[in-house]
What does this fold into?
Amino acid sequence: METGAGAGAGAPTVIETTVDELAARVRRVLAGSADAVPRILLGLCGAPGSGKSTLAAALVERLGAGTAVIVPMDGFHLATDLIRGTPLAERRGAIDTFDPGSYLSLLRRLRTRDEDVVYAPSFRRGLEEPIAASIAVPRGVPVVITEGNYLLADAPVWRELRGELDAVWFIDTPDAVRLPRLIGRHVSFGRDAADAAAFARGSDQANADLIDRTRGRADLILRLAD
It folds into this structure.
C-alpha cells in the first residue's frame, strides 16, 4: 500500500494532510491493485483523544459504506464484569485491559476473506462494554479500517497484529487540542469535570506516553488540517 517508510524501514514520513487527500490515497491503491477484488487492512493509531474514530468515520464517508467499514480495537476491551474489583478496573484502556489474541484472530479472518460475512465486535460508549458480533464485514468490502491505541506496540501478539495490517497511520495531535477533547468526551459519558480531567491526565496520559513511543513503527505520521 502507498504509505511511507514502513515499520522498520527508517523514520516514517510526516505529512500535513486532509481527509480528502487520505481518501484519494486509498482510492489510488485500490485502482492500482492487481487483484480483481483487493482488500486493504488499514490501521489508524494514536493517543486517546487524537481523533482516530473521527478520521475513520470521515474516511468511510468519503470512500462509501460499500467500500469501507470500521472495525475498532475497542471492541476487544475486557468486559467490566471480568475486571471489576481488580487493579485493571482503575486503568481501563491500558494495553493489558484488551484481548489482543482475539483481535489478531479477527484480523486474520478478515485477511483470509473466505467467509461471506465476518462479524466483528464494537464498543458501546456510555454502556462502556464491548458488544459481540455487532459489525458486519461482507467479503466484497475492499477496505477495512481498524483504529486503536496499540496497533504499533512492540509487545507479543501486538507485533503479530501489526504484521496483518497493510499500513498503519499515526495521528499526531497536539496535547493542547487532544486533552480538552478527551476531557470533554469523558464528561459527555458521565464523569464529572474534575474526575474527567484527573483520568485524562493520569491513566490516559500514561497510555498516551506509551503510544507516543511507538510512532516510529508507523508508515505515515499524519498532521491533519482542520
Notes: Strands lie at 13-17, 40-45, 68-70, 117-124, 129-138, 143-148, 167-171, 220-224. The longest helix spans residues 19-32. Confidence is low (pLDDT under 50) at residues 2-8. The radius of gyration is 17 Å.
